[in-house]
Amino acid sequence: MQNEEIKEYIISQEPEAKFDETGEWLNVIINPLSWRLLAEKLKNADLQLDYLFCLTCIDWKTHLTMVYHLTSTKYRHSIVIKTDINRIAPQIETVSDIWRTAEFHEREVFELFGVEFLHHPDLRKLILTDDFEGYPLRKDFEDPINMIKL
Amino acid sequence: MYTQTEIIRDTTQLNSNGNEGELVINVGPQHPATHGVLHLVITLNGETIKKIEPHLGYIHRSIEKMCESLTYRQFIYVTSRMDYLSAHINNLACALCVEKGMQIEVPERAQVIRILMSELTRIASHELWVGAMAMDLGAFTPFFYTFREREVINDIMEQTCGARLTMNYMVPGGTMYDLHPDFRNRVKAFIIQFKSKVTELEDLIANNIIFQNRTKGVGVLSAEDAISYGCTGPVARGSGVSCDIRKIQPYSGYEKVSFEEVLEPAGDSYARYLIRIREMFQSISIIEQLIDNIPEGDFQAKTKAVLKLPKGEFYTRVETARGELGVYIVSEGGTTPYRIKFRSPGFSNLSALNHMVKGSKIGDLMATMGTLDLVIPDIDR
């Protein structure tokens, strides 16, 4: 499907969505509160975006941005969903029951960025030790023992 | 990391929940079949697996954080240490991402060299997997047979790149050195050797009734689940999901060579074995098409000494031996990335393990986990 058609569909579901076409794929910027409902529609309805190939987070020092890369194995179109969340107590609804791969990726973002995924089935640390403090991939993280900055 | 007391606490918790007869056992972190430091906590009911929880991070080096302070020439070297069996392809993904951001034209010669090296890497990786997989199931001989062929590829790599495992041969703009004058002849000799010896593997493994009984119908993954869990590479193609990035989003000149995307619909461990064997033949066919047609010219484009990516976001997807590797660079216009994310294939493939083995016998665990072809540094990063 072409970007114009995808845009039309998303606008019909989420009138407040903004678009950015400067990158390789169509970027859709949405409100975090409407992400969960939109996600269900993106996977199951017209667009058939059934494969979440990247889920990550970016720390902009003032806020965090969740980035979801989605593609359709049927139509081969891809879009990027972005949503800004606050940095002090970041929260967003989980999509791990829609795309199962999100379960591990969200756990990774949870421990490295401190984003709480609401209704996640098993939100624990995955890579770091249980008693590890701080969120290593945030920009203000300092570790006095292990060298991370070179 | 997980001390003895913690595990005992886990067991008592289960029992206090009223799930008597359940047993929690640990596989790893030091276990020969995990091929690295992977720790699985398995909840068993008799011999039946109820749940598998992977505990990762024993080899976590925070490569993504390290890359934030490395320049665009330096960060490629770290990625050889992720999936060390696909080092060339990891380097290629990073080089492609930087080239995409800076709009560098790569000379044709470099593109062909890159494909040749990537396909040799793929064969070496699959050869190692076949040997290791057979060893996981108790057959020791195939390991030596496959390492004999893999050794030849490693020697070819060493001659041209100067290293056998972490090559660091791909740089933004092309390759680091030109091919060794002997390269062509040695690759041709390897192709002849590979073709004459690969039937031995079939006799030893595929036609072996024990191997077939242990892998057919074991660890079945449906196409729908494979997509949902984000499985890629031979794991997803073994379930009939077309996901070869070389076909979907051709890079580095893959659109110019003809090859088939190998698919098997069964979704069991045996299908994943067949995929890898047949992919080796496809790789050989790609090498045959290119080895006599390496264009003359530069092996590296002229680039500035200091690379600066414009402000923006760049994403490349490549097909490694294990599946789709994604490199996501967020640039603020400086000489180092603002944020970099490696979407590694092993991480997503591992997440499907619990789903694949739940309800099967513990004896089948290794037959399933082996076919996922996990490389732990790739998962932990």
Question: Can you offer a commentary on this structure?
Answer:
The complex is a heterodimer of chains A (150) and B (381). Chain A is α/β, with parallel strands linked by helices and 150 residues long. Chain A has a domain at 3-93: NADH:ubiquinone oxidoreductase Nqo5 subunit (Beta Polymerase, domain 2, 2-Layer Sandwich). In chain A, 22% of the residues lie in helices and 27% in strands. Chain A has 3 helices and 7 strands. In chain A, the strands form 2 sheets. In chain A, strands 1-2-5-4-3 form a 5-stranded mixed beta sheet, covered by helices on one side. A two-stranded parallel sheet of chain A has the order 6-7. The longest helix of chain A is centred in the last third of the chain and has 12 residues, at 102-113. By secondary structure, chain B is of the alpha+beta class. Chain B folds into 2 domains: 4-55, no CATH class; 63-380, Orthogonal Bundle (Cytochrome-c3 Hydrogenase, chain B), CATH 1.10.645.10. Chain B has 16 helices and 10 strands. Chain B has helices spanning 4-16, 63-67, 75-79, 87-102, 108-136, 141-161, 183-206, 209-215, 223-228, 233-237, 245-248, 269-291, 345-351, 353-357, 365-371, 376-380; strands spanning 22-27, 30-31, 36-37, 39-45, 48-55, 170-171, 174-175, 312-319, 324-331, 339-343. Chain B has a 3-stranded antiparallel beta sheet. In chain B, strands 8-9-10 form a 3-stranded antiparallel beta sheet. Chain B has a two-stranded antiparallel sheet with strand order 2-3. In chain B, a hairpin with a 7-residue loop joins strand 9 and strand 10. In chain B, helix 4 (87-102) runs antiparallel to helix 5 (108-136), helix 5 (108-136) runs antiparallel to helix 12 (269-291) and helix 6 (141-161) runs antiparallel to helix 7. Residues 1-5 of chain B have low confidence and may be disordered. The A-B interface holds A 22-25, 50-54, 56, 58-59, 67, 69, 73, 76, 99-101, 103-105, 108, 126-129, 136-137, 141, 148-150 and B 1, 56-57, 60, 62, 64-66, 69-70, 225, 227-230, 241-243, 248, 312-315, 317, 324, 326, 328, 330, 338-339, 341, 343, 347-348, 350-352, 355, 380.
